[in-house]
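User
New here, explain this?
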Amino acid sequence: MRVVISGQMPPPIGGQNLNVKRFYDLLDSEPEIQAEHWRMEFTKSTKSFRKFGLRKLVELVRVVFRLCKLRSGGKMDVIIYSTGGPHLVPIIRDIILLPMACMMSEKVWVHFQAAGIAKKLLTLNPILRWLLKRVHGMCYGGLALSAYGKEDPVSLGMQMIDVLYNGLEDHAATQANPVNEKPTKKKEQETVMLYVGHICEDKGVPVLIRAFAKLSKNYPDLRLRLVGQCLTPYTQDQLEDEIGCSKVGEKIQVTGLLMGDALQREYRDADMVVFPSVAPYESFGLVLVEAMIWKRPIITSHWRAAGEVMGDNPGGICYEIGNSHEAALEKALLQVMESRESWPRWGKMNRQRYEKLFSIRCLRTNLLNIINK
């Protein structure tokens, strides 16, 4: 069987790009599957994210050429196409590319890695809305990352819809300090709160800094580590101004983008992981699964699929945003700090949920079942 994975592999680093590579690597290891990559490089860096430019137009022509070249190599049984999400530029891209993919492959599964299309349709230009529904109707089916995420393919009129949870490799089992070993920090008395991801308003980072500043007055040994890089239009200057205004800049460390072992050491050495995202394109949150792998308590906004990922009995706090995100997050952080005796139990619960639903083994099994439909 010939299966083509479309999309952009890293760089830049992001959940969607990593998933494209993960899918390709999984299928490439299957002896009965001929896996190939339909390469797309629309975003060279986070600075060009969501923006239109001449380079992206040139890349669109190249992407069409690459698809034709793949087709010249023989029949394609399945294309797994990563949709661009709710922003105008990727919407136009999908309207152009999806019909071509359908003409050249027996089946096209649209992988909804970026959420928000259902709400975008309400305000989208009527012509673009009709075209978007039309091209998705040509496809075989849609893959949602969660039950919540099914609203996007449903809004586009797709009939065949499957839920395919994200899955991650067990990084804790391959590190120098396995998951069951006690983490080691430079200062054992410090309590480290970790955020990993894009640094911007949508991801809730400014709100996190302000809530942390208020909380840290009562917890002098509490530290916040921000791992990631600023995502346009949010800038490094804005981040530095926010930290400066917090008056607790000495307790906040920005590491920049980390990958591989360096990133996994951050999870290993943290005491808890915070994920305060309110991004309109948020679909799943791989950070939550990374935290589960390392048995970390989690504080997350109850936003889109986060509650579903965490489960009915979460290993941490899944807070409602309410009228004030900052007040809600501060309350959740305080609740976690006052529940220190529950941290080991929460971590164990999170690890068990990872092994049951979000392991790489689960992803491989579910992905093969879908492809073999």
Remarks:
- Residues 54-72 form the longest helix (19 residues).
- DSSP finds 15 helices and twelve strands in the chain.
- The mean pLDDT is 93.
- The chain has two domains: 2-164, 171-358.
